[in-house]
Amino acid sequence: MDPETEILVIGGGAVGICSAHYLCELGCNVTVVEMGEICSGSSYGNAGLIVPSHSVPLAAPGVISKALKWMFNPDSPFYIKPRLNWDIISWLWKFRGACKARHVHQALPLIRDLSLNSVELFDELAVLDGIDFCYEKKGMLSVYKTQEGFEEGLEEARLLKDIGIEVDELKGEEVHGFEASVRPDVTGGVFYPQDAHLLPDRFVGELARHIEGKGVTILPSTEALGFETSDGKIERVHTTRGTFKVEQVVLSSGSWAPGIARELQIKLPIQPAKGYSVTFKRPSDGCPGRPVVLAESKVATTPMGDCLRFAGTLEMAGLDLSINQRRVKAILNAVPRYLTGVDPNELELLEIWRGLRPCTPDGLPFLGRAQRYKNLILAAGHAMIGISMSPITGKLVAQIATGTEPSFDISALRVERFN
């Protein structure tokens, strides 16, 4: 007899585990399947930033011209591996269409509200019994080396300030006075006090253990292979560990969601964007006291417990998990241009990591029920803010699954918006 579960969550990263947590809180019987280990994808080695400051979507005016300068340079913050592939061509065309001021002004309030609500939910998760994921609310500092970069940063900061995000502008040596690890010769900085940070793999892992103790079944090394459907519903899900009879399905498998959705004849324009991080043992001297973003280089520096992590780059090369050492070196080479007293060559290396972040053409995730199937909920495409938005996404998934009115108007995140 096939095992039964009320709700099957496909994907064991931050979004899937948070969805399972809030579904469990509402009394649902939940099973999570993950093709690798729990938190083995992009939730594992990212910068660990919780960022209301990142309320401007990836698709914005000016991004195309900047991307064209970068896209064929393997050392740049943004790189597209040259290849003839209709999916990436189609995605880029849709991305171009979304890089408009109107889209930004429509998306800003929604991302702001979701992000600020997520911070409140992180506050609640951080005090659950037996959970410690190095959660700290110390804000985030963006540092600018050039006048041009600083002016762009101020323009974005003032846009965020207009919608209620707290912003402090710092000029010249004020930045070094505020954060001693920053070189005194930087041009300026912007501090976002509402931001926070955590150790992402510990967050997902400890929340997964917590919900297992509450009755959620978690099955790692379990891959979704196919589906049985009838009358607009998914009846069964075939996996490498057998077939599950289901009442509802949540698809939250990040960059792998389009391949799974294809089995259900649903097209998700999500492109995997490879990001890298390099983690060192935290130095006793010179370590930043809070996250510092090296703005022009698009590198995030995050102190995490007894670690110090540098993360960055956006590399569109398909489902390619190879490590490009040029990209890693570009991240590390940026550090001494902004920070003083932190030399990656003198730190104890713990890990070089890469992961695939799921990017949609308009910079907004897919969240909601699919029209084709009454019992399928999509929650994927969070790009670089998957960790940041995982609690609120999980809570909204639980509300949708149980027929509760969602806390926010998420019509802009509908699954079929590109059809």
Structure commentary:
This protein is α/β, with parallel strands linked by helices and 419 residues long. It has a domain at 58-83 and 136-194 and 271-359: D-Amino Acid Oxidase, Chain A, domain 2, CATH 3.30.9. The chain contains 10 helices and 19 strands. The chain has helices spanning 14-25, 63-70, 86-98, 101-125, 147-162, 173-178, 200-213, 257-262, 325-338, 386-401, and strands spanning 4-10, 30-33, 49-50, 78-80, 140-144, 168-171, 188-192, 196-197, 217-219, 224-230, 233-239, 242-251, 271-281, 292-294, 299-304, 307-316, 349-359, 366-369, 376-380. Strands 4, 5, 6, 7, 13, 14, 15, 16 and 17 form a 9-stranded mixed β-sheet that branches. The protein starts with a strand and ends in an 18-residue tail after the last helix. The model has no long low-confidence stretch (mean pLDDT 94).
